[in-house]
Design brief:
The complex is a heterodimer of chains A (73) and B (129).
Chain A (H helix, E strand, L loop, with lengths): L8 H4 L10 H4 L12 H4 L3 H16 L12
Chain B lengths: L11 E10 L4 H13 L8 E14 L2 E13 L4 H10 L3 E8 L11 H17 L1
Antiparallel strand pairs in B: 1-3, 1-4, 2-3
The chains are: A mainly alpha (73), B alpha+beta (129).
């Protein structure tokens, strides 16, 4: 039996191309440790997952997102 | 051999994010931006969006905070190396990222009507709590 399709959060938000400067959106697609969330968990389409992974990497470089999260300073 | 018919446009649109030292005055930052953009031989002035000071997600050197500026401009690619060299050499620029701006990013801006509808929805949510 096939599971029903999950709605894609990116499509639902009406996003045309994922913005690497939108750290509040990107923060929803990283784990508690700061890793990129797999699309099988987030339900994001493959095209948007590719955009997301590039956007998250750019956002990390610009110190908008951490490379590693949940670590004791 | 015949010359290729299709050539890239002479200019392309770029988006640059600058992170300045947050200890600098706003006037100094505006001055520096002008100086950098002067290197690009821009046909029309760049549009700057100032985010202002915000905390960095991690420490960069001795910096905990940065002053973020986002610029959009259209220029010939051959102008970029000199521009980036100037950014690299300037100690007040903590970090920068130049990228092509060829897609409209994010969701389209909401119209007044949609904003009102969203506000109404938000109010409904608050009632439920």
């Amino acid at each position: 039996m096939r599971r029903p399709k999950k709605p894609s959060p990116i499509v639902e938000a009406g996003i045309r191309y994922v913005d690497y400067k939108d750290d509040r959106l990107l923060a929803r697609f990283i784990t508690d440790y700061g890793k990129i969330l797999p699309s099988r968990l987030s339900g994001v389409h493959a095209r948007h997952q590719r955009q997301l992974s590039k956007a998250i990497k750019k956002a990390r470089f610009l110190a908008l997102l951490p490379y590693v999260k949940g670590q004791q300073a | 051999m015949a010359k290729l018919k299709f050539r890239r446009a002479a200019t392309r649109t770029y988006e640059t994010v600058y992170i300045f030292d947050s200890a600098l005055d706003d006037a100094v930052i505006a001055e520096k931006l002008e100086k950098f953009h002067a290197l690009l031989a821009l046909a029309e002035p760049a549009t700057n969006e100032h985010w202002g000071r915000r905390a960095l997600a991690y420490k960069i050197g001795r910096h905990d905070n940065g002053y973020y500026v986002i610029s959009h401009f259209t220029t010939a690619p051959k102008q970029l190396p000199e521009f980036e060299r100037a950014l690299k050499l300037d100690d007040s620029v903590v970090r920068y990222l130049v990228s092509l701006h060829e897609h409209d990013l994010g969701a389209p801006k909401l119209t007044e009507e949609q904003l009102a509808a969203r506000r109404r929805d938000d109010d409904d949510d608050e009632d439920e709590d």
